[in-house]
Specification:
Elements lengths: L1 H18 L1 E2 L6 E2 L9 H6 L6 E6 L9 H13 L3 E8 L10 E9 L2 E9 L2 H7 L25 H22 L3 H17 L8 E6 L1 H13 L7 H13 E7 L3 H4 L15 H4 L3 H15 L11 E7 L11 H4 L4 E7 L5 E2 L6 H6 L5 H9 L9
Parallel strand pairs: 3-6, 3-7, 7-8, 8-9, 9-10
Antiparallel strand pairs: 1-11, 2-10, 4-5, 5-6
């Protein structure tokens, strides 16, 4: 009888837990006024046999070593293909500490080839973040007598201090400071190599970026689209970007808050306008893209005259902001804003904030949109 009562209590508690566990945006919800956009399947079928180049850029926080390959696998599976990684093309193990690490892979589909390039930029800031290691959470010591002072810290506070502050937000601070010049130069170099790895390629380029990585990409692309006239290599890369960049899939958009660092303070008596608040990195990129098209209209014909911007946001991701279509939409830009639930919400109170921020590219709904677009391509299985 006692055992039966425990079983009833257990089942009741389990049912209560399940009933209180919700994923409100699973499947993902396309926000009103979002534009249509193509997925990889459609781009492959319309590329006339040309490979589709997919560039992966992680966000703040040091990614796990397997990150680029895992993302390639996830996207390939959503498309219905298997990815192959060539050890000869994998530079992640041999890259210098001050360089962006590169991992390349290919996925063969019935419609054509996807060429992946994973850019791991976290080594650029590794040495800087080592300065914070002295205050990582560790086994408590007596700070009054010990040479190694490790104060008592609550478990959850320690996890947030070590991860969110010392590893993640440290990336954003390093990038927004004087080191941005070196960051941008490294990203320009890597993106230039992507568009020039097959100089005769005319297939579309797709960028899949996360949080701080999106800002880094747009800053670098802006630099590439305004090359010195005596730099023929960069001018060719700029033409390729203008002609081939088709879609940017953004996870955990942070442009609104990171853009604050690029703006002047506005006096209370002033009215906020585009002239006195300046633009974020995406607005500056779009402006540079339009200027480049005007400068080169007589020698280049844009393969993709309209760029698609697609932002995925989990409302419980504290480090993420929606990408408002009204702010960026124009004749040459389509914007889609999509709400997702990366993890369950418990009792309407909390979703794991780290999982909410870090698992977009494990979310099957997100991967389906990347593969199949919106509305979903009839070519998708």
């Amino acid at each position: 009888m006692h055992l039966r009562r425990l079983k009833v209590i257990f089942l009741f508690g389990l049912s209560l837990l399940l009933a209180s566990c919700t994923t409100p945006y699973q499947p993902p919800m396309v926000v009103k006024e979002s534009a249509e956009f193509p997925g990889l399947v459609k781009l492959l079928n319309e590329s006339n046999g040309q490979p589709v180049d997919v560039v992966l850029v992680h966000g703040m926080c040091t990614p796990k070593a397997e990150w680029p390959i895992a993302v390639m696998d996830n996207i390939s599976s959503a498309v219905g293909a298997n990815v192959s990684i060539s050890s000869a093309d994998t530079e992640i193990a041999t890259a210098k500490p001050n360089e962006i690490q590169v991992v390349r892979g290919e996925a063969q589909t019935a419609a054509g080839t996807i060429r992946f390039t994973g850019l791991v930029w976290s080594p650029l800031v590794k040495e800087l973040k080592c300065q914070l290691l002295y205050d990582m959470t560790g086994e408590e010591t007596n700070c009054k007598t010990s040479d190694d002072c490790r104060p008592r810290r609550a478990m959850l506070n320690g996890k947030f201090k070590d991860g969110l502050l010392n590893d993640c937000l440290a990336d954003a601070l390093a990038y927004q400071g004087v080191g941005r010049i070196a960051f941008r130069a490294a990203m320009v170099k890597s993106l230039t190599q992507v568009v020039q790895q097959k100089s005769d390629s005319k297939g579309p380029i797709v960028v899949v970026s996360a949080s701080l990585g999106s800002k880094m990409v747009f800053d670098a692309l802006s630099d590439m689209l305004q090359p010195p006239e005596d730099n023929a290599q960069m001018m060719l890369a700029a033409d390729a970007i203008q002609k081939r960049l088709a879609v940017v899939f953004m996870m955990a958009n942070q442009l609104p808050i990171l853009g604050l660092a690029d703006q002047n303070l506005v006096p209370k008596t002033s009215t906020l306008t585009a002239d006195n608040i300046g633009g974020d990195s995406l607005e500056r990129f779009l402006k540079a893209r339009r200027q480049h098209i005007l400068r080169t209209a007589h020698i280049t014909d844009g393969t993709f005259t309209k760029l698609a911007l697609v932002a995925f946001t989990d409302p419980n991701d504290l480090l993420s902001y929606r990408l408002l279509p009204s702010r960026y939409k124009a004749a040459d830009v389509d914007v889609a804003d999509i709400l997702v639930s990366n993890q369950p919400t418990y009792f309407g109170l909390v979703e794991n904030p780290l999982s909410a921020h870090n698992t977009y590219l494990k979310n099957k709904g997100v991967l389906r949109f990347i593969a199949c677009g919106s509305p979903e391509s009839s070519l998708c299985k």
